[in-house]
UniProtKB/TrEMBL annotation:
<dbReference type="InterPro" id="IPR012337">
    <property type="entry name" value="RNaseH-like_sf"/>
</dbReference>
<keyword id="KW-0963">Cytoplasm</keyword>
<keyword id="KW-0540">Nuclease</keyword>
<comment type="function">
    <text>Could be a nuclease involved in processing of the 5'-end of pre-16S rRNA.</text>
</comment>
<dbReference type="InterPro" id="IPR006641">
    <property type="entry name" value="YqgF/RNaseH-like_dom"/>
</dbReference>
<dbReference type="InterPro" id="IPR005227">
    <property type="entry name" value="YqgF"/>
</dbReference>
<feature type="domain" description="YqgF/RNase H-like">
    <location>
        <begin position="7"/>
        <end position="108"/>
    </location>
</feature>
<keyword id="KW-0690">Ribosome biogenesis</keyword>
<comment type="similarity">
    <text>Belongs to the YqgF HJR family.</text>
</comment>
<dbReference type="InterPro" id="IPR037027">
    <property type="entry name" value="YqgF/RNaseH-like_dom_sf"/>
</dbReference>
<keyword id="KW-0378">Hydrolase</keyword>
<dbReference type="Pfam" id="PF03652">
    <property type="entry name" value="RuvX"/>
</dbReference>
<protein>
    <recommendedName>
        <fullName>Putative pre-16S rRNA nuclease</fullName>
        <ecNumber>3.1.-.-</ecNumber>
    </recommendedName>
</protein>
Length: 145
């Protein structure tokens, strides 16, 4: 693990109504939830996203790529997540990587429930925790190589 850099990375869990976010450090391989952005038909308030990116100044952005359990693209949401990733790159100039997020929401719900029972399971919490799961899974994939 000597080649691990200490980059800070923001992950997004893209959804058409809500987009969760998390920040993590590559050196520790851990992530923490940030905030959920409301989206109108998949489009966030880009000013809010820009404000967060300016505040945290990540070295890289990871966007969860929704697929079915076999890793195949889902009809609409997979393409829209890719478009969201392309827009972040195009608007703000960040390097963006897509990462398979197959089980992130299920894992996020389980983790939140363990931490705080049913009251922890708000939509925003789930989306941000999903972003945490996506990012920690991305870290594991980097280290597995």
């Amino acid at each position: 693990m000597s080649n691990t850099k200490s980059r800070s990375i923001i992950a997004f869990d893209y959804g058409t109504k809500s987009i969760g976010s998390a920040i993590g450090q590559e050196i520790t391989g851990t992530a923490n939830p940030l905030k959920a952005f409301k989206a109108k038909d998949g489009i966030p308030n880009w000013d809010d996203i820009e404000k967060m990116l300016k505040e945290w100044q990540p070295d890289l952005i990871v966007v969860g790529l929704p697929t079915d359990l076999n890793g195949k693209d889902l009809e609409v949401i997979t393409a829209r997540a890719k478009k969201f990733a392309n827009r972040i790159h195009g608007r703000f100039g960040y390097t963006v990587e897509l990462h398979d997020e197959r089980l992130s929401t299920t894992t996020a719900r389980e983790e939140l429930f363990e931490m705080g029972g049913y009251k922890a399971l708000s939509k925003g919490n789930i989306d941000c925790q999903s972003a945490v799961v996506i990012l920690e899974s991305w870290f594991e994939a980097q280290w597995g190589e």
